[in-house]
Amino acid sequence: MYSTHDSLIFNNRYQTTTVYMVYGMYNDLLAVFTNLKDAQEYNRTHLYGTGEIRIAKNIVVKL
């Protein structure tokens, strides 16, 4: 089995990105975005600003 780094070298169909996860008041994951502005807009419109945005960097995604 290859590590994540090896997969990126051997297969160009993978890429790393930063994701912004919006959590609700009961610590439940409600939405995931790749753009911070979209995450902030979701938090403002759907949760009235009460949600928490958590950032995860270097997440591997398949293209």
Please give a structural write-up.
By secondary structure, the protein is an alpha+beta fold. Helices cover 30% and strands 41% of the residues. It contains 2 helices and 3 strands. It has helices spanning 4-10, 36-47; strands at 14-23, 29-33, 52-62. It has a 3-stranded antiparallel sheet with strand order 2-1-3. β1 and β2 form a beta hairpin. The longest helix is centred in the middle third of the chain and has 12 residues, at 36-47. The two termini are 20 Å apart. The mean pLDDT is 84.
Give a quick set of tags describing it.
3-stranded antiparallel β-sheet, 41% strand, 30% helix, single chain
Radius of gyration: 15 Å
Kindly report the average pLDDT value.
Answer: 84
Which outline best applies? elongated
Task: Please give the largest β-sheet.
Answer: 3 strands, antiparallel
Measured distance between first and last alpha carbons: 20 Å
Figure out the total of helices: 2
The class by helix and strand makeup works out as: alpha+beta
Strand content: 35-45%
Helix and strand pattern: HEEHE
Low-confidence stretches: none
Helix content: 25-40%
Number of strands: 3
Major beta sheet, strand line-up: 2-1-3
